[in-house]
Please model this.
Amino acid sequence: MAQRNILAKKQFSIKSFFFQWEWLLVIVFILINVMNANISDYYLNPTLLLDATMTFLDKALLVLPMVFILVLGDIDISVASTIALSSVVMAVLYNLGVPMPVAILFCLLVGTLCGYINGILLTKFKELSAVIVTLSTMIIFRGIAYIILEDQAAGKFPKWFNFLSWGYMGKIPFILIVFVILAIIFGLLLHKTTFGRRIFAMGNNIEACRFSGVQVDKIKVIVFTLTGLMAGVTAIFLTSRMGSTRPNVAMGYELDIIAMAVLGGVSTAGGKGRMIGAILAIFIIGFLRYGLGLINIPAQALLIILGLLLIVSVMIPNLKGRFQTLRKVKS
Amino acid sequence: MSEYILELKGITKIFPGVKALDRVEFKLKRGQIHALMGENGAGKSTFIKVITGVLTPNEGEIYLDGQKISFKNPKEAQHMGIAAIYQHVTCYPDLTVTENIFMGHEKVQKRTKRILWKEMHEEAKVLLDELCANFEPKVLMGSLSVAQQQIVEIAKALSTNAKIIIMDEPTAALTKKESEELYRITEKLRDQGAAIIFISHRFEDMYRLASEVTVFRDAKYIGTWLVNEITNENLIVAMVGREITQLYPKKEAIIGEEILRLEGLSKTGYFKDISFSVKKGEIVGLTGLVGAGRSEVIQAMTGLMSYDSGKIYFENKEVEIKNPLTAMQLGIGYLPEDRQKQGLILEWGIGRNITLPTLDRCSTKGWMNEGVEAVMAKELLEKVEVKANSVFDLASSLSGGNQQKVVVAKLLSADLKVIILDEPTKGVDVGSKSAIHEIINDLACKGYGVIMISSEMPEILGMSDKVVIMREGKVTAIMDREQTTQELILESAMMNQADFS
Amino acid sequence: MTENKVIKQIKGLDIAKFRELGLVIFIIILSLAVQIRNPRFLTLENLNDMLTNTAILGILAVGMMLVIITRGIDLSVGSTIALSGMITALTVSTYPDMNPILAVLLGTLIGLVCGSVVGLLISKVGILPIIASLGFMNIFRGLTFMTSGGKWISAHQMPVSFKAIATSKVLGINTLIVIAIVTYIVAYYFINHTRTGRQIYAVGSNPESAKISGINTDKILWMVYAIMGALSGLAGVLWVSKFASAQGDTAEGYVMNVIAACVLGGVSISGGSGKISGIILGTLLLGILNNALPLMLVSPFWQNAIQGFIILIAVLVNALVKRNITKQNLMRRKI
Model:
């Protein structure tokens, strides 16, 4: 029998290159910008556009680790509560006289701890689904925030703290720079490292990973802890933007964050998705919200548009698959 | 009345991209057990789905009792008296046995449509008694063993008053003893007048039960023979399309010093006091009935499961294996039993599958180097002669045998000294089987210590230098190649506790 | 002889029963503890209050259980409540003479439509339940704001007859409680004694083989979401009647309570199992907590955390008990 030659080079196919979810997102992104530019003359002002990013990038920071969690095939609905708890802890500590940098450090610590608890619970109790575990920690974390601050608000932060989400470096908002750096780090981590490769493997078939010597528990704990840390980071920027905090801060964010990742083509079933898609989705939703705000379309209408976008975005691949099989059978 | 209860003519079924059945013929006589054989991918499963109405053929005719019929859905076929017992038991683990038996044809009160639970439990009990089952109809299906679940499936077929019963590899997951029980039940069904289509990879099933055998190959009908008129060789030629001269080509490897030794390994509820050793170049066959604790011992050795007491020595040093990673770093690799669930990521390219355990080799400080990875995968794939075009071919696009070769290549990617194979040829077609055996022999010749778990007696006898036999969590015998016979192995594997003491 | 019997009994006591027994014991202990702290707890008046406040949660838990049995989840419940409540409230404020029963039917119908749309996308298009219902959670919430123009419908805009739905009594029992009990009885009969009801379990337990045995899985999936929607619609009317106000953010986040009630009641998120008796207990436990904590003078700000901890502990204990049972089964195997 002749030795078969197995190709090791990927053949470039123009069709499959352009047949990617991300291109669709790019088109939607352009459409939204064209639409916005048409309905409002103020829209295409670069300074205003840059400023607009300040309003949605704090939440967007959490989309980055959420992509990791979704690729793992898990879900974390406790993130918004983690934001609330770390934000409240930071504010209360500061108001008790702790220096701001130390308070910030505690904010990050609390977030990390919350994520770590989720990770440990999930790996020690493998029979429990992530929905259940993070649902209960979601109630608990916010509950603790309520115990600490009751229905009060805490704030009066130092001036420099406001800089984090309102400040500029040159003409570019500081938070945009932070986001770009973190997005690059998370993107590289997911797509270019062995760590990311193993996360994709776990999302596809965790059993096969166990048998292949992948340390599945360790990776899962790391990913959830990382998410907790990022929730702490988000809490800092969010608190800075709002100037004060309450226990009910960031209510419902978890669903927004998951929705952005899903719109970006990340499958909640695990194993599929790309960081670039999620990032595009963040900006699509962000600019859509900003543009509609310019022409005074109420925020409620945006809810409907968001919901429709989400549904349509998951419908298209489904319908595409059906159509293709139909065509193949016919031919 | 026609001589044949079921007749299929020129059945063709086309899936996107493949012809799963190509003008297939089949004739089933009344009260007969008819074996259907063929390699994996020969179209047997599709064929069954056509008979049971799950799939509608693109071309061809089906005659039931001489009447031309066509099924629109599985329910119609069931109504006509056709029942199937599928390869993977298709049960509802959360429901009771009674419900599993009557799913789809529950007894209901005519007027109110209320389910008649009492009547159903009673009838289920009767059916189960008929099959000599040792469990109650009210227990949950999920709490039964595979063999017990199979009996429920048969009871289900009986409850529909099926005239034609199709069994798709029912013995695949059963032990010898459980298979005997199944043979008995199958024969009883035949004697009661049912016609049975029996699909199996095991030749012994066919010889034991069937009077006729039909062979499919590459989605085509090859032929039908009387079982007592066909020889093993002819059957293999029919199935594979070429002659396989020697099924178990044992190459003599040089057996060197010991590399791995277990001493008194125990885990409560799974196994107790397990001791044996592996030498370089040696193939140790580990056998016993399914459920004897073979896989559990291996999983403890490879860190997939913890053990309570006992010691593991690797190259004469005592080692502690906490997780699969430490096992792999020591040089112990494990080829799991279920290649689709435990061995492969089906949605991934075969190249990525191979490098998963050894990502450190194609990365620097955690950064992937995909060029190096592809070349590494290519070399390994060519080494085990996988039939594929590129390292980016999806694992799901390969046949069972080739998938198994990919899993073997995955093992070879790491620096191993001991390779443990759990049922390496289970559900693999005859052609790939001998290729895998050749690879195992090569590994032994290269100085690897090999432990091979298998339930197939000929494979154990043909391949191993040493046979370790387990029963109910204990090692009952260790035999050398020369002194082993099928009878001796069976005796050790099935001996009663009373005889033992 | 007797030893054998005992072993048999232990075996017969399956996990589901063990969990229910545990819940019952926990509820009794909790009630006694509260009673000692505050003797007002076990009075008829307070019990009636408590059950009235829990009735809506109980109705919703029935629908959610069906959804979860099929391996799904419905996050749009809160929004459906708001939408149906808002439309019904607008209708009765425009036509004050409308029969309250008609109002209830209207709300239920709106919920049914909402649920059907969600179910259609999940069953026919094949969108994951969590995503489809997440999308519709936003859409229905948006629609609620749109129909009301962002305004509230407050008590004085509603006719007395409508507000009476939640305060009236049938045979001396509050109507909400009666509706909840009727829902439980109908649901119990449906899922235990009809074919369609059992098919819900079959689809959740093993979807592929359900298809092979000829069950119309698409229809079943569609149906459970439609039922969930209809019950949410019903709950929406009751909610608005009870609180005498319809707002854009009505029942926001309430879906988590509903899921929690199911989880506490032992409905398995991986599908295939769940019992009415379980969710009754789960709902009751949440209801008692809500009612008892204020009675025990626990600060309202502690309630969330305490509830969360109890849910988590229930889930963890449940898992540990299951593990222990498998371990004991293993120990029994003699080697």
